[in-house]
Write a structure and sequence with these properties.
- The structure is a single chain.
- This protein is α/β, with parallel strands linked by helices.
- It has two domains: 25-171, 3-Layer(aba) Sandwich (Rossmann fold); 181-315, Nitrogenase molybdenum iron protein domain (Rossmann fold), CATH 3.40.50.1980.
- Helix content is 46%, strand content 14%.
- The chain has helices at 2-17, 33-43, 66-74, 90-96, 105-109, 130-133, 136-147, 152-178, 195-201, 219-232, 246-257, 283-298, 310-315; strands spanning 26-32, 47-53, 77-80, 101-104, 186-191, 204-209, 236-240, 263-268.
- The longest helix is centred in the middle third of the chain and has 27 residues, at 152-178.
- It is globular.
- The N and C termini lie far apart (66 Å).
- The chain binds zinc ion.
- The site of zinc ion has 6 residues, from loops.
Length: 320
Amino acid sequence: MRHVRLAGLVMGAMLLAGPARAADPVPVLATVGMIGDLAAVVGGDCAAVEVLIGPGNDPHLYQPRASDIARLQKAQVILHQGFNLEGRLGEVLERLQRDRVVVAVGEAAVPADLLLSAHGAVDPHLWMDVAIWARLVPQIAAVLGTERPDCAAAINARADGFGQELGALHDWVQATLASIPEGRRVLVTAHDAFGYFARAYGLREVAIQGFSTESEASVADIRAVADEVVRSGVPAVFVESTINPRTVQAMLEAVAAQGGKVSLGGSLFSDAMGEVGTPEGSYIGMIRANVLTIAGALGGQPAPWPAELAAWADRHGVAK
Ligand SMILES: [Zn+2]
């Protein structure tokens, strides 16, 4: 009798203190918001998702702080992009994966269709092509479903629904950007984050800095882009939410010095989403905001908002 009671007590203590009570949401840490949003949508109440590198922060320049290491250690699942996006995180993740699930979801979901630099480095900005980014959804669903098998059916159902929303978003982006007059389909930005975007949606990308922002833009880089802006006659150029606007300003001055005319078309979300709690603080809202900014500045017209995304618009208080 005593044994039985003891066993019950021990089990009770394990249930209270154990790291993986079946009904607890899985503690998930995503490196960037674009991954975190996918995990939060797909995971629902089966996952507690946090983001390591938040709004306004540049993942290329990321260096883990002591408090970040503590957050990483608390996570049961760590989702990162891979392809060298997250600055100095690689070594830390290697150590952490000994006793937790660490998945490079970008690398796992997108083995092909990659853009490469002249030196063979992979362009990590995969979220800019919605059809490509949608491939991460089943990947993340599989990871979370393995951690919470009791939630797997619900996770897969949410992943299917989200996949349909992203399909509709992709078509909307395509239709909206196709309305930009032919000669104006040039996207001039601070760093080379829009290669996949340009490829998917029929624009030509011109960037002052390369894939990574780790090295400073040179005077020659700025001058080359200024020359290109003057030559192409594009009406507007863009700054980015995670990048100091001074290189774009220097380029605008160089254009003006040549007698060229170009305006600032607005700020784009390149490597981080907007503030938490705003529509742009979600992946769909980030893409929507970028596309409206680009189309507005380059003379395009927004296509009708898709019916599949009406519920998303309602949830975020956005006009359809
Ligand atoms: Zn970038």
